[in-house]
Inverse folding.
């Protein structure tokens, strides 16, 4: 999970490719834990939210980027993240984030989960194609 977090952080400015569920959820879980720890630390020591807010600012762009890449893996534009602003839009977003990605290449690139050999196995071979 830590590796997925670091992978997502290393691609903080990548809004054009695809990400697997493990990368998205690993980043989301660890960034939430770090943010919560920073907030608790702030309240316990400083009685303010300075450090917690700074951590949230640092994770903001990587969160948007990994969310966009996750939506790309399901065949959707990253702009769908704007649904979160409505509140009720979180329901389809969580569904799409949890959904398996498209097997085949899409306009955002190759599947990060399935290799070429996995895709070839899905193509049915009919008897008249066998020589």
């Amino acid at each position: 999970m830590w590796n997925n977090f670091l992978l997502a952080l290393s691609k903080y400015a990548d809004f054009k490719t695809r990400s697997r569920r493990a990368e998205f959820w690993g980043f989301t879980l660890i960034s939430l834990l770090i943010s919560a720890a920073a907030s608790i630390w702030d309240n316990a020591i400083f009685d303010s939210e300075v450090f917690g807010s700074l951590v949230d600012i640092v994770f903001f762009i990587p969160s948007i980027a990994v969310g966009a890449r996750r939506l790309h893996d399901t065949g959707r534009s990253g702009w769908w993240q704007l649904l979160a602003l409505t509140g009720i839009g979180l329901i389809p977003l969580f569904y799409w984030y949890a959904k398996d990605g498209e097997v085949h290449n899409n306009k955002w690139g190759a599947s990060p989960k399935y290799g070429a050999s996995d895709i070839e196995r899905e193509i049915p071979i009919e008897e008249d194609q066998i020589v």
The CA atoms of residues 84 and 91 lie 9 Å apart. Helices lie at 2-10, 21-46, 50-73, 90-98, 116-122. The first helix runs from residue 2 to 10. The chain has one domain: 2-129.
